[in-house]
Design a protein that fits this description.
By secondary structure, the protein is mostly helical. The protein is built from six helices and no strands.
């Protein structure tokens, strides 16, 4: 019987130790969770500040001081993504942008049949030429031609 009592006492001691260990682990986990929340909050605040700084810089660089002249943004996008008409959408020419995008997508699909390979390069060349034209014009000339005058092509 004394062996059973010793075994029971040992088990009770082990259970008590396990409870104490679990409580300490829970306390430590709670501390770590609080610390992680604080660090995440600090990181989020820093990320917001960085994003706002980047956004302000991008607006200044791509939109001009008053945000009306989109020459640099439209020119770069015309050269890089001109075949998809992204520069047209930026300038507000939605119909022309949709035409370039639709033509490109159809030609990419038809290129599987080799028919599109003859024409798939056309929207890219249009974008490249328009991008070069946009970037070589003065700011005033670009603004008057493409934003005030609403000249949709070349």
């Amino acid at each position: 019987m004394s062996d059973e009592k010793n075994l029971k006492d040992n088990l009770d001691d082990m259970l008590g130790d396990a409870k104490d260990g679990a409580k300490k682990a829970a306390d430590k986990a709670s501390e770590l969770a609080d610390e992680a929340k604080e660090k995440a909050s600090e990181f989020a605040d820093e990320a917001k500040e960085t994003m706002n700084d980047f956004s302000d810089s991008a607006k200044e660089a791509f939109g001009g001081a008053n945000g009306e002249n989109k020459k640099l943004l439209a020119g770069i996008l015309a050269i890089l993504l001109g075949s998809f008409g992204v520069h047209k959408f930026i300038l507000g020419y939605n119909k022309e942008g949709a035409i370039l995008l639709g033509f490109s997508l159809v030609m990419y699909l038809l290129s599987c049949l080799a028919v599109g390979l003859l024409f798939v390069w056309i929207p890219g060349v249009i974008g490249l030429v328009e991008g070069i034209i946009y970037l070589t014009k003065s700011d005033e000339e670009f603004y008057n031609t493409y934003q005030v005058g609403r000249k949709p092509w070349f």
